Amino acid sequence: MNTAEQLDGIDHVNRFRPSQTEIDRRYNNVRAAMANHGLDALVVSGSEYSGFEGAIRYLSGFLILHRYAYVVIPLEGDPIAVFPKEATWVGDHSTSFIARRELPLHCGEWMADYLKSQGAGKVGLYGMEYIMNVRDYKALAAGGFDLIDFDIPFDYARAQKSDEEIASVRHSMEINKRGVLEVIKAYQPGKTEAELMGVAENVFSAAGCARNTMDMVQIGPNGSLLPQMVFPTNRPLQDSDGIMYGLEISGEGGHWVEYSRPMMPNGMDAITRDMMDAQQEFHALVRENMKAGRTAAEVHKQCMTPFVERGYRSGHVCGHSIGMTMIEMPRIGEGFDFVLPENMVCSMHPHVMNEERTHSLYFQETYRVTADGGEPLSGTAIEVYDGSETELKPL
Fold it and tell me: Is 171 contained in some domain?
């Protein structure tokens, strides 16, 4: 009995485990992209770093608890899940729906030897730019393969979500909304930044999000927000503060969403009020223009107009595809001619600031691409809260 067989035991599979039809759809789409680029094999990597574990979960069903993992996909034949030997008992490997699971001492050397045995020449790597373990990359690079950065083609192959995936996305959004609302309801002057973040984290942990949360805050004086996103501290909050808890999570199904709404207990100052008008106009344009058939660059240009006309600067890209990896390609931005398919899911979060960098305003909303425009999956308005509310404001 090999190590993988010994691991088969308690069933930790959740209710969002994909059907065989869904698994086949994923692999068919990925292999079509591989064939289009002339690959003999594809190595997909994931790591514990929040938001970078998703490709492994997408292709294997395994949620990385610690360290990293790989899925090796030959153009023909069964995929192989590869886990580091030192992580044998870190996570339940039997939750993987891949039958063959290897746990070598050195993942890169094992994958290089396997690919050589299969006569692979052109090998794609997903995670080459941000995710992959350097030690394992070095072993593959020394193997004599023609290594291809496959980050963008892989993401494009999984951009269109199935009905099963959309159900998981909606589940995650309900959890995210609950966390935001509980933070608003718990607000009182004198509570600390970290104390309020703990309210959200308690919601997320209780809902089974595990470590799949990416939380931060923006704080500013006198009804404004500074551009910097930071960790919450034990500083007591004041009614004069502007507060924005940026909350990003994935629920049991593994699909990430982003949803946040600022709080301004004593209201906004004049600059923030103008930014608020622009944010509301932006999200109205997303609802109108994020249509299947348009390119990511077109949507970016159409929707960013309210900020451009007012002379505000963008802190980073206004949006991106999102799925089981927190940030997937394409970005909703210049230079991305990817044509949006129906049922693609995008996080839209323009992070805008004035030229002086004294003011910023940031909203996160997750949209589904439809034939008629972007569907905001929260169903809530782009509004600022004052901390007295007991319900989220409907669209």
Answer: yes
